[in-house]
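Batch job 17 of 40 flagged for manual review because the log was empty.
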Amino acid sequence: MSAKKRHLYFLAVIVLLFTARASAQGWRTRVWPTTPDNVEYPTQLTGWLIVIDPGHGGSDSGAVNKNLNLKEKDIVLAVGLKLRTALQDLGARVEMTRDTDKSMLISERYTLANNLHAHRLVSLHNNAANTTAEGIETWVDSDAPQVWKNYASSLHRNTISAAKAYDSSIRDRGIKYSGTTPPWSGKKIGVINYANIKCPAALLELNFIDNDKEANRLIRDDYQRALANGMANGFLEHASQYNKEDGLKY
């Protein structure tokens, strides 16, 4: 083989290898940031970019407790700010969809995460049912890959653990699937919709604000901190167990 042919052959091999690598890194044809490697796992989140989404805000108060004059938008913002501090203390870079009382469209929330090339998003809410319902539940898209569900499970398991350590009577309502679990059967929760957001996302319903027993707990600074620390532990667990070989390369 001539020197010129050898040169062309090696160029072709390099192009093929590059193309294969780019394809392996793509998710739904998109190249996305690689999830950080860190020898300090599971004790640190250095290199991770996490978006916290306190639900509602501004003119949208979310669910309310009229007896105690409480609004969901205020409770979840307070918890979100505490979660930001907990995650930053673990080395993560944290962005919030809102850190003040302002209105935001759902599309603005997931678009922010997409534009930032976030590794994960967590959306915070309070439940309401106009009954004596209580407890904590976590939502994830039913059509999403298993890594999304593993992420939601880690967040849920550790949040429940922290909540029960604070008050053993708190009910574990489990993992719910947007798209199949009522009241979200046949429709999707927009901010964690697999078709909308480009990183694994989960939504936590942190107790029932219209239940006075739970509302009186939710307004306590120490309980809000317990929830935030539980979620932070969930991120640590997920980071320590996540395997890029599972399919998603970020």
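Reviewer: the log was empty due to a logging misconfiguration, but the result itself is present. The longest helix spans residues 3-25. Unflagging and moving on to job 18.
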